[in-house]
Specification:
disordered N terminus, 5-stranded mixed sheet, 12 strands, 414 residues, globular, 13 helices, alpha/beta, single chain
Length: 414
């Protein structure tokens, strides 16, 4: 180890000598996990270097909010995962949605949102965007013609979701993108479910010709995998579009903590293995639930009969085989069972915990009041109460037994 010269550290007081200690560790250290760089202030060698720095293209560093080696590495790896070229990190998935909307929409513009979209995205449009004079319209995600008919001269952004939130209808995503592209309208996909594993959002046909403009991802879910990190991302392939999002990100003062970035970096290499395990367990349990007397419908894109299954198969199982799907499914408990019995079923579960979010190791369950979440008719859904399950990494046999005992307790007559 090389120690600095005795006069290399200026000052006589201990605090001064410690703050300005001149030792720099040797270069060349390499390990599987990237280092964690924490900073608000970034030091420049001189004024000329400060004025020459540029953070927008990741060639250097200017301030911790604009990026450190840790956040840059995570952004690049997420681009590799989803097939994009540029990435911006946000404090949550919803923050990423809001950042994209604020970057691309102005007063007098219109945004189209699928009626089965993530609820907070709809709330954002109904309240915050409306304050800025930005209109919104909900379209039928299962009817591309309805989307086409609702695009107007004021439409600047169309949100896509594959599958939809809670009820998991899978749209004809390629046709939706094609419609928007023909009309010159930017598309943004909430790709949290697909996670960069089920399909490539920037290459929907496998020929490199058709893809979304922006892929938004709640890294809170599968990339994190632990149920303990809040983070989001917006990924693009177009440099101009990326810069608009990034400059809005800067002006809003959004950033992520280095330790959170480290947590996602630690989990990212295993995302494929975890996604596959969640997927296979969810399919087994969904198929079993379809045979239970209290259940009148199972909603899982990979299962025949689920709304939009053929679109899932065309996109996520294009090469044949089982394809890929997230570890989510919902069921409709028949209308003959009152809400209090559905709630009792959820309360009776022991391994499934009641809680929002998904993608972590623990299985979760939430009952929903669908009428308060949809503005359009849902004839493809049976009458009853929707219950969504997020399948974790517990043993499938244990989860099966837990579902069986809760069904028997809540619906003894079937």
């Amino acid at each position: 180890m090389t120690l600095p010269d005795s006069d290399a550290t200026p000052g006589s007081e201990p605090a001064t000598r410690l703050i300005h200690h001149a030792y720099v560790p040797p270069a060349g250290f390499s390990a599987p996990q990237p280092a964690v760089h924490k900073a608000s202030t970034v030091i420049f060698q001189n004024v000329a270097a400060m004025r020459a720095r540029e953070w927008k293209d990741k060639t250097s560093y200017t301030y911790g909010l604009h990026g450190t080696p840790t956040s840059y590495i995570l952004e690049e790896r997420l681009c590799e995962l989803e097939g994009g070229l540029q990435c911006v990190l946000m404090p949550s998935g919803l923050a990423a949605i809001a950042n994209v909307a604020l970057a691309l929409l102005r007063s007098g513009d219109e945004v189209l949102i699928p009626d089965n979209s993530y609820g907070p995205n709809k709330a954002l449009a109904e309240v915050e965007l409306a304050h800025y004079g930005i209109r919104h319209t909900y379209y039928d995600p299962l009817d591309p013609a309805d989307l086409a008919a609702r695009i107007s001269g004021a439409t600047r952004l169309v949100w896509l979701e594959a599958p939809g939130s809670v009820t998991l209808e899978f749209p004809d995503l390629a046709e939706q993108v094609r419609i928007c592209r023909e009309r010159g309208v930017t598309t943004a996909l909430d790709n949290t479910w697909g996670a960069g594993i089920a399909f490539n959002p920037f290459d929907l046909l496998g020929d490199g010709q058709l893809g979304v403009d922006v892929s938004v991802h709640a890294l809170t879910k599968y990339p994190s995998g632990g149920g303990d990190v809040l983070m989001g991302s917006a990924i693009t392939r177009d440099p101009g579009l990326h810069l608009r999002i990034k400059l809005t990100h800067m002006r809003l003062g959004l950033g992520v903590g280095a330790n959170d970035a480290e947590a996602v970096l630690r989990s990212l290499p295993s995302i494929g293995l975890r996604y596959g395990a969640h997927d296979m367990a969810a399919r087994r349990l969904a198929r079993w639930m379809a045979d239970q007397p209290a259940v009148v419908q199972v909603l899982h894109p990979a299962l025949p009969g689920s709304p939009g299954h053929e679109h899932w198969a065309a996109l996520c199982a294009r090469g044949g085989g089982e394809g890929a799907a997230a570890g989510l499914f919902s069921v409709v408990i028949g209308a003959r069972h009152a809400q209090d019995r559905v709630d009792a079923f959820c309360d009776a579960l022991k391994l499934f915990k009641i809680g929002y979010s998904w993608g972590g190791p623990m299985s979760l369950v939430v009952p929903y009041e669908l009428r308060s979440m949809r503005s359009r008719p849902t004839p493809h859904l049976r009458e009853g109460t929707v219950v969504r399950f997020s399948i974790g990494l517990e043993g499938v046999a244990d989860l099966h037994a837990d579902l069986a005992q809760a069904l028997a307790a809540a619906f003894p007559a079937g």
